[in-house]
Amino acid sequence: MKRNVVSFRSNANLARQLWGEPSRIALCTLRDLTVRYSLSVAAGDLQFLDGRWYVTHSGLLQLASRKGCRGITTILQERLSDVGAGRWVFKATVYKSPGSKGFVGYGDADPSNVSLMVHGAELRIAETRAVNRALRKAYGIGLCSVEELGSSSRNPGPEADREPSAEHASNGSSNGQPRLRDQLCLVIRQHNLNPALVKAYAADFCGTPSLKEANRDLVQSFIAHLAACAKENRDMLIRRLNSYAQTAEVKP
After folding, report:
1. Is the torsion defined by CA of 117, 42, 8, 217 positive or negative?
2. What CA–CA distance (Å, rounded) separates 161 from 17?
3. Residues 105, 130 contacting (CB under 8 angstroms)
4. What is the predicted pLDDT for the residue at 234?
5. Measured distance CA(132)–CA(251) in Å, rounded
6. Among 28, 68, 130, 211, which residue's Cβ finds the most Cβ atoms within 10 Å?
7. According to the model, what pLDDT value does residue 99 have?
8. What is the DSSP string of 157-213?
9. Neighbours of 174 (CB within 10 A)
10. pLDDT tens digit string along 202-230?
11. Can you give the pTM of this predicted structure?
12. To which H or E segment does residue 6 belong?
């Protein structure tokens, strides 16, 4: 019990740093997520958007690993997919134990229900959504996952879609603050982190194919998250970064 309380305090403190003071209801929900599932803000398991908690794909995979998940399979639903329209539908099955019949989840994605930032990646998003839904069913997670949010949830309007990406925003700052690229480089240098692995982690954190396609708000959130993780538990951060080594190697 004491370990859970400490974890909750750490989660709550980091949440305040990243997103401001949560409401009492949000804090109660965070406590429940900490005690029941050991989800960690520092590890990127949770996101707080518009006053609500969302679990992340990496958080669900970490939970499955802790619970001893025996396997996950995905199958493209060809009859329901339309290659020409960029619409993809996947079926995912999660096996909690050797004798499990499996927990099934479906995920779909097309240009109308994903952010403009990730157009062209609908196939991967559809598979991720299917896996997330199956994992949430298997482990009783009532939260929606970040990756399941549609374009209207993650993009409030046309202005949001036109927000500068990390690449563009790095060319200057309108408020006198250091450029995003400079902020990220500073954190990397201060804590002696691998830049390529940080970029791969950032893309996963922001839910975009690459860091340069993430909007400014997401990049700022990632930088704050990275700095907090490096300060609180650098060893855990290094292990998480190393998990992206293979991904970083295959990217151009």
Report:
1. negative
2. 25
3. yes
4. 84
5. 24
6. 130
7. 87
8. SHHHHTS-BHHHHTT--SSSSPPHHHHHHHHHHHTT--HHHHHHHHHHHHTSSSGGG
9. 6
10. 888 888 888 888 887 788 888 888 888 88
11. 0.63
12. helix 2-19
Spatial neighbors of 209 by CB under 8 A, at least 6 apart, are: 118, 120, 121, 203
CA–CA distances in Å: residue 134 to residues 5, 71, 99, 250: 29, 11, 17, 28
Alpha-carbon gap, residue 27 to 65, rounded angstroms: 26
The region that residue 112 occupies, defined by phi over 0 for left and psi between -120 and 50 for alpha, beta otherwise, is alpha
Q: Which residues pair with 165 in a beta bridge?
A: 215
Q: What is the pLDDT of residues 135-175, one digit of tens each?
A: 999 999 989 999 988 765 444 433 333 333 444 444 344 33
Q: Are 184 and 223 in contact (CB under 8 A)?
A: yes
Task: Return d(Cα 70, Cα 62) in angstroms, integer.
Answer: 13
CA distances from 145 to 46, 60, 142, 229, 235 (A): 9, 9, 9, 21, 27
> What DSSP string runs through 128-159?
HHHHHHHHHHHHT--SPBGGG--HHHH--SHH
Cα→Cα distances 248→10, 78, 202, Å: 30, 30, 11
Is the per-residue pLDDT at 29 higher than 90? yes
The burial class, CB within 10 Å (0-12 / 13-18 / 19+), for 252 is exposed
| Type of residue numbered 205 | F
The number of beta carbons lying within 10 Å of the beta carbon of residue 160 is: 15
